[in-house]
Every structure is written in structure tokens, then in C-alpha cells.
Amino acid sequence: MDIDEILSKVQKGQLDLESAKQELKSTSFLNLGFARLDTSRKLRQGCAEVVFCQNKSDDHLLEIYKQIYQSEGEVLGTRANLHQASLIQEHIPQAIFDSHSGILKIEKENKAHKGLIAVCSAGTADIKVAEECAQTAEFFGSCVKRFYDIGVSGLHRLLSALPEIEKANCVVAIAGMEGALGTVIGGLVSSPVICVPTSVGYGANFKGLSALLTMLNSCANGVCTVNIDNGYGAGYLAHQINRQSKNF
Amino acid sequence: MDIDEILSKVQKGQLDLESAKQELKSTSFLNLGFARLDTSRKLRQGCAEVVFCQNKSDDHLLEIYKQIYQSEGEVLGTRANLHQASLIQEHIPQAIFDSHSGILKIEKENKAHKGLIAVCSAGTADIKVAEECAQTAEFFGSCVKRFYDIGVSGLHRLLSALPEIEKANCVVAIAGMEGALGTVIGGLVSSPVICVPTSVGYGANFKGLSALLTMLNSCANGVCTVNIDNGYGAGYLAHQINRQSKNF
Amino acid sequence: MDIDEILSKVQKGQLDLESAKQELKSTSFLNLGFARLDTSRKLRQGCAEVVFCQNKSDDHLLEIYKQIYQSEGEVLGTRANLHQASLIQEHIPQAIFDSHSGILKIEKENKAHKGLIAVCSAGTADIKVAEECAQTAEFFGSCVKRFYDIGVSGLHRLLSALPEIEKANCVVAIAGMEGALGTVIGGLVSSPVICVPTSVGYGANFKGLSALLTMLNSCANGVCTVNIDNGYGAGYLAHQINRQSKNF
Amino acid sequence: MDIDEILSKVQKGQLDLESAKQELKSTSFLNLGFARLDTSRKLRQGCAEVVFCQNKSDDHLLEIYKQIYQSEGEVLGTRANLHQASLIQEHIPQAIFDSHSGILKIEKENKAHKGLIAVCSAGTADIKVAEECAQTAEFFGSCVKRFYDIGVSGLHRLLSALPEIEKANCVVAIAGMEGALGTVIGGLVSSPVICVPTSVGYGANFKGLSALLTMLNSCANGVCTVNIDNGYGAGYLAHQINRQSKNF
Amino acid sequence: MDIDEILSKVQKGQLDLESAKQELKSTSFLNLGFARLDTSRKLRQGCAEVVFCQNKSDDHLLEIYKQIYQSEGEVLGTRANLHQASLIQEHIPQAIFDSHSGILKIEKENKAHKGLIAVCSAGTADIKVAEECAQTAEFFGSCVKRFYDIGVSGLHRLLSALPEIEKANCVVAIAGMEGALGTVIGGLVSSPVICVPTSVGYGANFKGLSALLTMLNSCANGVCTVNIDNGYGAGYLAHQINRQSKNF
Amino acid sequence: MDIDEILSKVQKGQLDLESAKQELKSTSFLNLGFARLDTSRKLRQGCAEVVFCQNKSDDHLLEIYKQIYQSEGEVLGTRANLHQASLIQEHIPQAIFDSHSGILKIEKENKAHKGLIAVCSAGTADIKVAEECAQTAEFFGSCVKRFYDIGVSGLHRLLSALPEIEKANCVVAIAGMEGALGTVIGGLVSSPVICVPTSVGYGANFKGLSALLTMLNSCANGVCTVNIDNGYGAGYLAHQINRQSKNF
Amino acid sequence: MDIDEILSKVQKGQLDLESAKQELKSTSFLNLGFARLDTSRKLRQGCAEVVFCQNKSDDHLLEIYKQIYQSEGEVLGTRANLHQASLIQEHIPQAIFDSHSGILKIEKENKAHKGLIAVCSAGTADIKVAEECAQTAEFFGSCVKRFYDIGVSGLHRLLSALPEIEKANCVVAIAGMEGALGTVIGGLVSSPVICVPTSVGYGANFKGLSALLTMLNSCANGVCTVNIDNGYGAGYLAHQINRQSKNF
Amino acid sequence: MDIDEILSKVQKGQLDLESAKQELKSTSFLNLGFARLDTSRKLRQGCAEVVFCQNKSDDHLLEIYKQIYQSEGEVLGTRANLHQASLIQEHIPQAIFDSHSGILKIEKENKAHKGLIAVCSAGTADIKVAEECAQTAEFFGSCVKRFYDIGVSGLHRLLSALPEIEKANCVVAIAGMEGALGTVIGGLVSSPVICVPTSVGYGANFKGLSALLTMLNSCANGVCTVNIDNGYGAGYLAHQINRQSKNF
């Protein structure tokens, strides 16, 4: 029931006051004790809750996967490890694990992928983050093209891919070290560019701080930044932009 | 001429090789000596070059305004001061200056404003940045609604404005101090949320670092961040997302 | 003997000068050589010394537990590991270890729990710190209610719990990542709010710095902050506030 | 009207649905356009909204003072300057300005001051922050005693004042430079200690960072920290703790 | 084909337009799917692409070594570990691994080493970085002399080596801790000095930040700095300077 | 009266208990209301309290100078400005102000200067801090020799002065920018070296952080560091070391 | 006299021991009391001492200019202001001041400029630093070409200038904000690239830190970095590299 | 031979010029290839070179111990581990290892310990650093008294030990967390106080940064600071101060 329905039932005398107050508050999550699953998120935001697997205990993780699977018919989890994958697959055999990106998911069949997102990465070490991004956007229904190892130390690699990148509704630029890829792409395309700094590098990289500051200070227009290594966040946002675009 | 045309002319013998090489490179900017105006930017990215007025010398600034006005028929400048406004208005009387946002512009008449962007700010001190954002998006043709002073210390102010905010193709959340506004809005709406940390605050705010980190680490989905106080960048990106949305 | 007694005995000739000087200094701690147990702390501050187990050598830890147990009849230890728990339990079988919070304690029976403290955490990963906080306050005699996984990305979960949270004499808000929970609660309740930033997160979280700065810069009134992951400190302070409140 | 009343009127047919929805949202703040005064704050949190004067434009500030004065009969403003004081006093002659603390207030007469808060500062340069703290707590109705220049480089000054400090329901420890005062007091008293780092110092003080980290890492129990130079926040919180204490 | 050739063929009708566009872009790298080898780098910059082995997967690493070996006849890899060395040596037996520097290379025989580079290190713990530097420069054809353990705490060790150091076309100064070596050498020689801060040290060294800042702020003339522990970068740059010097 | 006397008087019945307690606490400072002068400091530490003039109000400063002058017959003040100097000189004409170091003092005549301290500075911009150091040590009775502009970019300048520097009981090394002077001197002399980082420099100097970290991480033995620009602290400590040395 | 001469004179009995020791140390600088001019620097390093004017007192500055002019016949000063320029020009009329770069110099006539250095800057606001760099290198005898406003947000501007840049013996890349210019140039040319981060920008630029980290972490080969805004240092080093190059 | 002897021999014709130059440079260290032992350090600074064992390879470590043992008859090594201890003891059976402090030494018998140094630590976790400090000073011949676990959270423990601490020629204050011990001791004693911040703590301690800043900003006189966890450096400096004191 939404707020209109609840008030309407109150007006008609079909709902007493105390129940109405409870209803207003309790319909939208599932209290597991250790966690409160946000079951109204899909209604509110268009995508169901995603599981951040890292550091979750086995019993908690399993319970959460079961609950979401039951209510949504599919589950997307990120930053899972091999042990967690085995655990879930034991109970939900159709779960699929990609060790490189850490994505552990159960996905509905024959999902359509629409629009276009370009996921670009500077080096091979950034692929892990790039895949988390790409697979997240694909899970939600976006079509994704990957452009890997096109960092600016060999600029012709990027320029060669540019015509394809320009077709996307949203571009994701993923880079560690000095993170210049975001700015260079930002100056060349007309669609929004989401920058993902990665922790790839050493020394004065300070675990991604260098790339993060680069991207935040970009002299190019139409760029924004998410947290270091946050492929998931970039994929989610890229999907949001893509799904509301004209050619989706 | 674009690359196709140039190559075509070469094939037809209408252009010699050396000229073609130069053509490929020189058509797209105007070399003023002290600056190289990116005259191909509108073609490439959809919006003409914007003038960052701060610290520019008087003669440089005037020359740049004149050149852009001549080629585009309008100019958008940011971070201008009163002195610069007088200077430009002396030579281009139709220039308009908004001292609060620092926007100094010459704008074509009867511009249509389409789609919808919601510009939200946490406190009154954030209005300066919010106006830079709103007026930038409006200059490029977006329709903007402002929601000021809806910070989370009085949550009901935000909740009251929520139904209107939810209608936007893109939401901008502008906040200093602890910057929680971005996360709270990000958890409530389904469209992309661009967070702008401001330098409003003192002490452990460290000139906006606090709000910046808050926004980068947001636990909400569908949010991204631009540089501290970068209202312009947020307005530009919001316009990009808005203009490619279905209901633009 | 306190200073009054000592001076009184000196006046009456019952204590010579040198002894008096020593007495003034030596009555209040127990010198174990490697450590000086602050045996006068309970008298001075209302709670006996608590053992910070981390990095203590086995013989030191055991000796300290024995001494405090002998003088106080109960011991509270924090940040203990499994090995340390086994060691202490071998010699003091009634010791109880909670592996999640790291609390290793021997507690008097039938302890009353009075007043009310609300311990709130944003995500499931923050539960470890939340339990250190809750169990500390309970050990000292406070009544604690737990509200876990009520982070602001799903605001209705928090609003639903609000009526119960408002009843507490003191609220503890525990959150990692962007740490917005403290501010949002701070704007909604009238009792003091103790914020505990946690190191939960990654990237620009910088091991809790993000949540720490958020909480220090909170735009809400009536909030304060303790060290990152310092559940113990928050629990102690919450108990102090609770125990001196009218309805304790 | 609170939520119960509104629902009750809906049930009785005295309020139509759309009006009810608006009522739920709009009763609790006053939209001035540039600001939304949180008029329900006193009801919600026990103290009316306080004005942070710094950087507010003259017309905004005056309008806010007038509105709060009208609804509350008194106004507390912080970080005001001499110009702002003159402006307000011109329109509201009974306004009182303390140039040292920056407090600009209109206060009801014959206000009772109850309980006890001890405001301690390490050096004379910290008095500015200390007064902001003390006068805030006094405005809300707390009794405050001041102990200034009792920094730990001359420990006997603190020890001499200790018996009086120990009587307070809450102690505020204000210090810049190395900020050790908070820890030393925290180890000596049994009531909660609120630490306020100040920006007093130079060099590796880094504008208060040094004192802030000292206070966050305090080895003493029962201490918490607020933002650098945040005397207001400490005074507010101290009043909250004091007002709910048994001997208030 | 370079741009001249391509345009020439277009002019002569030997190449159609679409093919010409592709040719312009695709000739200069080898797309392995997961990586795009920059095969035109030697032509463009004078040295072939170097393999940064760290964190590369086995199959990726092997494929990259094979491809570069095939096209260049030799391969230089840095930051390899023992496992990676075994892997490569199994397939390319002539690969040589130096466990101290992490250099894993296949090198053409009878390579001449010309000019002179002086590689100086402050302490024995810096040798690892110094060898990465020295062996990189040697691989590209520079003659290198090593001066190890000449840190400024025993200044006579440096002064004794000075006459030999002065003969080099380029000096590399490698130091951790306080990193003063770069400044002292910079004040004594007339050739360019490349400073390499190392992460050797502890505490306020902050993993090399101390030495990095020292070197960036050097009061000596003619010094520059590369990333912390970046022996490779310094060796590459030293070779560039050496190879274009008169006495190379 | 010291503690022995007080207890003795109590034993003999010459002092009642309450008076004794007060006596123990109140003899050692002078409560001016806004400040508590530490009048027992000379007895306790060998040097009377020194006035940190910066930011003190006129009436406070004057009162403090008068009180210390009355009790000690001389006053040392640091970081005074021209206005403060005029103020004090108006009331205490024999006060002497050195605008370069900011020292404002009234000094007893014919003071002996014993032992030897060497105050070394790297550049001319460091002289301000160096003079604060030198004049502080001289005020307390140490003999000081100055060695200015001997920075390591011209090492022979330092080596030339070395024989004289080696004669000192304590060496102070004052340097900004990269701050290498402390380490180089530390490796050459056998007496303790106090390093003073200065804020001289720009860019990655970060207001003295660079020199501070250099000095803290020095690879030389026998060096310690004080706060950035803290010439006073170094002068005080150098005097302490000098005064207890055999040849003082 | 150099060391050989001195020892030779000692051997021949033409110099007594004590004089020889002094001679070894004192020939190479001029002690002005407040400064020790490094008169042997030209001999030792190839370029005479340069005057850093900032913060120097008038009398010191004038004395230094006079002394260097007398011994060298020309003087290069950096970071001078208008007042200092007037002062010097009053006494040395042939002194020339460039207010934009802050260069204040007296230069020998008909100086030859050899080799080639390319000085590139990203934006117009970086010109100040770029001119300090270019004019420094020119003073020492290098030929310099300037390429201004070629930042990567409009990549075609850089690509257009590339053929000319490639001809230089050394390239200087000057950029603020995100500082990507250094990496992009570094990936395109074969000569050494000196990166100069500038403090141009705002917010998370942190006064040049962003550009500094970008440049230090560059994924391109053959790049090094100097301090933020250090145009002088880059110009000096570029000249060193240029002067020892084959085509100088 | 010192410089006097060498010059004298040259004068007498007993030494030719080239040999003299070499002699001047080579007498004072022993070149092991991988290291240059500073054999003249004892002559120059009063203490022989100490071995920093951490990260040294086995063969290097053994060779260094052997060489120093041969020339000095004793060796002091710090930060050794168990493996290194076994290695050295196998070849030099009289070597003694203290696993707590990491000291691995061979020491001459019947060494006298003179003067007095007070080594104070705040908590039991700081003992590791405190022992490195104490044993270093003892090795060089100082008499050391230890005062452990006297942190300021229980101030009476420190006050009780004060009379003994006051007798020392030099006090070392070792503390982690908030590091207030240094300031409190600094305000109570008249001898120099060397502060050693330790990395003991968590969260906003930032691996010792908190205690380091506290100590650098101490409001007490006569204190200085060494690097985080640098017990060795403090012990060395304390010995220097002690050995030149009157009562040594």
C-alpha cells in the first residue's frame, strides 16, 4: 500500500489509526534481525537491493540471497570470494560466479540489453573494476561495450576506438596511476563521462588518491567521479543515465 | 571540414597532401597567441566553450568574450567579479552579471528551457554554488527548479519537497559541512544524483574535504561527485543527462 | 585513606611526615612491574579499569585479569582474540567470550540494567563495533536496545524505529562509509547522540576518515564523536550520561 | 497538528486526503524562499533554531532574526560580527552583542540557570571558543562555571580547580596546540567530558588538527570530541546532558 | 605505413577512404583482447614497450612476453616475482631473472653500453630500487656505474666518490628516510640529477612521503623527482638524457 | 612553602587542615581572572614563564608584562608586533623590541653568557626563526654563535664553519624547503642537534611539512625536532642542554 | 685556487699549513654576514647563483644584486615584485623586470640561444609559471619555443603543435587542475619531459597537490616532476639537458 | 691520519699529491661493495656505527656484524628478528638477543653506566619502544631507570614517580594514542625531555600521527620529538645529553 491507499482506507474506516501508522512504516523492509532488507527499493529507485558480499558471515549471506531470490527472482552480489560463491551455489545451483570481477549472481533468462554504455579502462590491471562495472549495468538491462587497455601513454589506442565510444549514451572511464583517461575522453565525447579511479599503482598513488584527485579536478566538461575502485557504483549510475536516454 | 571531407578532397585531387595534414589539425581552434579558443567544441560536445573568468587579465578576458560572442552569438562566463563585469559591459552592453553566482553572460533571447533538473542545497551559504549550477544548466537550455535550505538537520523540509524533486531527470545535491544531503536524496529518488561538496564549514571541514569524502563514500546508489564548489561542472553534466533524456 | 584522613593523622601525630608523603602517592595503584593497575579508578570515576587485550602478552594479560578479578570480583576486557579467551578461561572458567565483539568478561550475576541507551548501526558490517558498545554499557549497568541496519540509503527503516529510539537517554549512532546516520538521527531526537565512525568501506573512505569527518562536521545539534571503531568509548560515555539521567 | 491529529481529522472527514498529505509535510517549517526556518525544532529537540550568522547577507540575517524573535520571543546567534550586530540592534534594540564570543542574542528576562556545567580552557587564546560554549549553554538555561588558563604545562593550576570541576554534571575541555587538557581532565573526573579542539597554535598544529587527533585518541574514558573551534556545539550538547541530569 | 604514405596512397587511388581511416588508426598496436600492445612505441619514443609484471595473470603475462619477444627479439619486464620468472623461463628458456631487482628479461647478445649514468643510493635497503634503475638503463644501452651506501650521515663516503660521479651525463640519487642525498648531490655536480624517493623507513616516513617531499623541495638546482620506488622510471629517463648527450 | 614545610607546619599545629590544603594548591600561580600566571615555574623548571604575545589583547598583555616584571625583574616575550611593542614601551620604557625576531623583552643588565650554542640556518629567509632561537637562549644566559646561510646546496659553506660549530654543547639546525641541513650537521658533529623546520618555501613544502618530515626521518644520529618555526622552543631546549653541560 | 694548486703550493713550501686549510674552505663563497654568496657555483655547476627575491629585505636584496653583478656581469632574479624591481633599477638602471613572470634580470648583450626547449602550458593561467621557466632557460643560453593553452580538454590543439614540440631536446609540460598534459605529451615524444604542476585550480586541487600527484604517477615513460609552480627549477634543468645534447 | 697529519706529510715530502688526495677521502670507511661501513664515526661522533637489522639480507648482516665486531670489539643492532639472532649467534656465540626490544648485541664486559636517564612510557604496549631506547643508552654507557605504565589517564601514577624522574639528566617520554605524557612531564621537570610518539592505538591515531602531532605542538617548554617508534634515536640522543652533563 502506498500513502494514498493507506489514507484512503483510513478515510473509509477500513483501517484504524494505529494500524495505519504502522503500515506507513513497516511495509517497506524485511527485518531479519541482523539486517533490514530494503524490499521497497525497486519500487522507489527502479532496481532491487544489491548484495555487498565482502565481510558478510556465511549464514547472513545465505539468508540474504535466499530472501532476495524469493522476492525478486534474481540476485546481484558484488565483491564475493570463492568460498562465498561455493556456499551460495550449494543452495542455489543456478548462481554464477565470475572470479575476476567478484560478481556472484542469479539472473533471469533472456534478459534484453538496451541502449549503450561504453566501459573504457586504461590498463589491464583495471579490468577487475571494469568488469564489476560492466556486469552490473548488464544485470540491470543495459547493453555494454568494453574498451580495455586504451590508456593515454599510447594515445592512438584511444583515438582508434573513439568512433565506437562516441555512440554510447554514457561512457565510463576507469584508470589508476595518474588517471588521465577520464579527462582525455571527457574532452572528446558529448555524452556524460563517469570516472572511476582505481587503486592500481604504487608510491605517490596513495592507493588511488592520485587518480581520484585527477578525476575530480578534470579540466574537461561533463565528467563526474565515484569512489576509488567503485565499479559497481559507476555501473549502476551509467545504467540510470542509459535507461532514461532517448535511444534506450 | 571533417576527416571524411578532407580525405575525399585528397582523393579527388582537390587538396594536396601537406595542406590536408594542416587542415586536419588547424581548423578547430583559434590561436590568439595567449590562448587557443576551442571553436570546434560545440560541434564535438554540444556546448560552446565557457569562460572561466577568475585570474584572467583584462585584455585577455575582453578578447575572449569578443571572439566567442562573434562566433557563437552568446557567451557564458563563470567566477567573474564586479570589475570584470564592468569591463565586459562597457564593450558588450547586453552582458548580464549576477554578483551572487559570479555568472557573467550574454544570452540569446527567447531561449527554450526543456526537461527538468532539480537543484537542491543544504543551507543558505550553499546558494552561491547552487546558482552557478542552476544558471549554467539554464544557459544551455535546461529547465531548472531550485530547492534551497533543505539540509538533513531538519529532515521534514526535504521530505516535503520530495514529490517535486522526484520529477526531475537529474538531481543536483549541493552541501557543505558533513554533506549528508547527497546520500539521503540518493536513497529516495530514481534519477541520477550529482553531488557537489561545498567549502562551507570550518575546522575539520578542511575547506570542503569533509563533504567531498562523504559524497564519494555514499552508501546510496546512483550518485556521483564533482569537485568542491564546482557548481558549473554539475550544471553542465546535469544538462547533458537532461538533454538526452526521453522527456526533454 | 584520602587526603583529609592523611592530613588528620599527621596532625594527630599518628603518621610521620615521610610515611604521609608516600601514602599520598602510593595507595591508588598496584605496581606489577610491567604495569600499574589503577585501583582507585572506580572510586575516582565510577567504573573500574577495563582491560584493552590487544597486543598484550599472555603472562601480562593473565596477571592483570587475576588482579582485577580479585579486587573487583568482575573484569571487562575488550579486543580479545580466541587465543586470549582460551587462556583466561583456563584459569578463570567463568570468563565469557563473544567472538564477534571481542568482549572477554567475567561478570557478577543478577546485575540490574537501568535507564535506556539506543545503539543504532547503519549496516551489518558495523555490528562488530555496535556490540562492543552495547555490551560495555550493559556491563556497567545500563539497559541497551539495539537498532541495526538502519542506514540512510533506506530512510524508512530509520523512521520506523524512531519512536523507540526517542525514548533513550542517550543514542549511539554507528556508521562507516559516508557516516550520515549520525547527522540524520541528530536532527530527529532530543537526547545526546554519540557518533562512532567505523572503518567499514573502501577507497576514499581512508579507513574511517570519511565517516569521522562527516560526524565531526555534522550540521545537527547535540552530537559528538569518538575515535574510529571505538565502540568501547561510546558505550562508556553513553553509560555515564545514562546513569546520571533522571530516569535511571 | 501532529500525525495523530491529522489522521484523526481524516477519519472524521474533517480533512480531505490531499490537504492531509500537505499538512503532514508543511506545518513544521517556514519557507522564506532563501531559507526554510525549522519552526518545529523546539518541539522536536527541546531548543529552537540557532542562527549561524557568518557569511549571511544583511537582508537574510535580518529577516531570520525577525521571524525567530516573533515566534520564540528570543534569538541566539553565533559568529556574528560588529556590522551584523549593528544591523540587528537597529531593528531590535534589545539585542546584545559580545564581540569576544561573537554571540548576538535577544534573551528573555529572568531566565533561571540550573544544574552545573564546567567550562575549562587551556590558554587565554582559547577564551573566544570557551565563551561561545558557555554563553550557549547559559542561553538554554544551564548554570555554567568558567575555569580558564588551566593548561597542563602548569598542572597545579588544574589540580587546584579540580574539586569545583568535579561538581559539574558535564565538563567541557577546550584546548589548542597539543590539546592534552581533555585527556588529563578525563582521567580525573567522573562526569562526561566534551573536548573542543581549537585552532590556536601554529606549524604542525595544522589549524587544529593536532588538538583534534589528540582528543579523538584520548586514553581517558568518558570523553568525546566536537569539531575544531565548535564552542557552540559543545555548549549545546553540555546543556542537553545537564538538563536531563538528576540534579538539574 | 605512416600518415604520409597513407595519404599518398589515397591520392593515388590505391586506398579507399574507409580503409584509409582504419589504417590510420590500427597499424600501431596489437589488440590481444585483454590488452593493446603499443607496437609503435619504439618508433615513436625510441624504446619498445616494457612489461610491468606485478598483478598480471599468468596467461596474460605469457602472451605479452611472447608477442613482444616475437616483434622485438628481446623483452624487459619489471616487478616480476619468482613464480612469474619460472613461468616465462619455462616457455622462453633464455629469460633471465634477478630476484633482487625483480627484473625479468630476455636480452640481445653483445649489446653495447655507451655514455655514462651514475646510480647512487643512500643505504643498503635502497639497493633494490637502485638495481631496477641501473638494469633498465643498461637494457636500453647506457653504461652505468653504481655508488651504493653513500648516504649523508657519513658525508665523506659521498665526497670520496664525487670525482667519479661528476663524469656521468646523468646522476640518479636514490634515498629513503629523509632523502637528503638528492639535494647534496644536486649542489655538487653539474649534470642533471634524477631523485628517486624510496619507501625505506618507518613512522613519519609515511611510506616514502618524507623522502618525496624532500626531493621535490630541494634547494639545489638541476634536480627532478620521480614516483616513490620508481627505479624503472628513473632508469628510463636517465637513459633518454644519456643517449642524447654529446659523449654518448 | 614546599610540601615538606607545609606538612611540618601541620604536624606542629601551626597550620590548620583546610589552610594546608589550600596552601598546597594556591601558592604557585597568580590568578588574573583571564589568566593564571605560573609563578612557580622558575622554581620548578629553572626559567620563568615566557609571554607568547601573538593574539593577546592589549590590556591582557600589559597586565601580564607588569606582573612578571614585578615578580622577576625581567620579561621575555615572543612573537610580538610593533603595536604591542609600543604599548609595552609606553608603560615600561626599558623594554626592547627586535622587529625581525619579534622578541620584546626587558632584561637585567650585565647578564653573563656561558657555555656555547651554535645556531645554524640554511638560508636568509630562515633568519627570523634563527634570531628567535638565539635571543631566547641568550636571555636565559647561554652564549650563542650564529652561522647563517650555510645550506647544503653549497656544501663548502657548511664545511668551512664546521670547526667552530663542533665546539658547541648543542647545535640548532634551522631550515625550510627540504630541510636537509639537520641531517648533514647531525652526521658531522658529536653534540646534540636540535632541528627546527621552517615554513620557508612554496608548493609541496606545504607550509613546513616537507622540512618537518625530513628532520623527523633523519638518518643521522643525535638529532631531534621541534615544531615548525618554533625558534623559541629550540632556544629554550638548547639552553637546558647547555646549562647542564660540563663546560657551562 | 683548486685543491691541486693548494696542495702543490704546500708541497713547494709556498703555503703554510694553517693558511692552506683556510684556503681550502674560504675561496668559494663571499660572506656578507647575512648571506654567503656561492661564488664558486658557476665553476662547480655551470651557472652562477640565481637570486630568489621573495621575502628578501631591501638592503639584503640590493647588496646581493650588486655583488653578483660585479662578479658575473649579469644577474638573474626570480619572484621579484614591482617594489623590488624599482629598487634595483634605481641603482642598476639596465635591470629589466617582467611583471608577469616576476623575472628581474640584468643580462649581457647579444647572448646566443642554442639547441631547443619546448615550453608547453595547459591553460592561460599557467603562463606565469611558463614564463618563469622559459626566461630562465633563455638567460642561461637555451633557445625556447612556447606552446600555450594546449590542455587536453581540446586535444587537437596539442596534436597540432606536436611536430614542432618533437624537435626539442627537452619538453616542459606545465599544468594545473588535473595536470594530465604531462602524461599525454610524455606518451607522444621521445625526448625527456619535465612536468611542472601548478597551483591553478580550486577545491580538491589542494593548491597543486592534484596536479603534482598526477605527474608523479604518470603512466608515460621519460617524465619527471619538479615542485608545484617551480618554473625556475624546470627551466634550469631543461637548460642542463639541452646544453649537453648533441645538437646544442 | 687526520687532515693535519696528511698536510704535514705532504709538506715534508713524505706523501705525494695524488696519494694525499686519496688519503683524505678513503681512510674513514670500509667499502664492502654492498655497503660502506662508517669506521670513522666513533672518532667523529663518539659512538660507533649501529646496525639497523630490519630487511638486511643474511649474508650482508653477518658480514657487517663481523666487521664491526672485529674493529670495535662490540656491536649494537636494532630491529633484529629471531632468525637474524640465530644467524649471528651461530657465528658469534656471545651475541645476546632480546626479543621484546629487537636488540641484538655483543657487548664488552663490565661496562660502567654513568649519569642518569629516566625512560618513561604511558602504557604496557609502549614497552617495546621503551626497551629499545633504554638498552641503546645503556650500551653506550648511560645509567637508565625505567618508569612504565604511568600514562596520564591515571595521573597519580606519574606524580608518584616524579621525584625519581626529576633526578635524571634527561627524560624520555614514550607514548602512543594521544601522547599527552610528553607535555605533562615537560611541564613538571627541569631537564630536557625527549618525546617518542609510538604507533600504539587505532583509528584516528593514523599509525602514530596523532601522538607525533601532540608532541610537536606541546605547550610545555624543553621538549623535542623524534620519529614515531624511534626508541633507538631517543636513546642515542639521551645518552649524548647525559654524557656531557656535569654529573656524568
The percent of residues in helical segments of chain A reads 40-55%
Number of helices of chain A: 10
The structure class of chain A reads alpha/beta
Q: How many domain regions of chain A?
A: 2
Radius of gyration of chain A: 21 Å
Outline the biggest β-sheet of chain A: 5 strands, parallel
**Within the largest sheet of chain A, what's the order of strands?**
8-7-9-10-11
Instruction: Find the count of extended strands of chain A (DSSP E, 2+ residues).
Output: 11
Low-confidence stretches of chain A: none
Q: What oligomeric state do these chains adopt?
A: homooctamer
Q: Which outline of chain A best applies?
A: globular
Strand composition percent of chain A: 15-25%
**Biggest interface and which pair forms it?**
F-H, 34 and 34 residues
- CATH architecture call of the largest domain in chain A: 3-Layer(aba) Sandwich
Characteristics of this structure?
homooctamer; 248 residues; alpha/beta; Rossmann fold; 2 domains; five-stranded parallel beta sheet; four-stranded mixed beta sheet; 10 helices; 11 strands; 40% helix; globular
Please tell me about this protein's structure.
The structure is a homooctamer of 248-residue chains. With 248 residues, the first copy, chain A, is α/β, with parallel strands linked by helices. Chain A folds into two domains: 29-106, no CATH class; 114-242, 3-Layer(aba) Sandwich (Rossmann fold). Helices cover 40% and strands 18% of the residues of chain A. In chain A, the strands form three sheets. A five-stranded parallel sheet of chain A has the order 8-7-9-10-11, with helices on both faces. In chain A, α1 packs antiparallel against α2, α4 packs across α5 (82-91) and α6 (127-139) runs parallel beside α10. Chain A is globular. Chain A starts with a helix and ends in a 5-residue tail after the last helix. The mean pLDDT of chain A is 90. At the F-H interface, β11 and α10 of F face β11 and α10 of H.
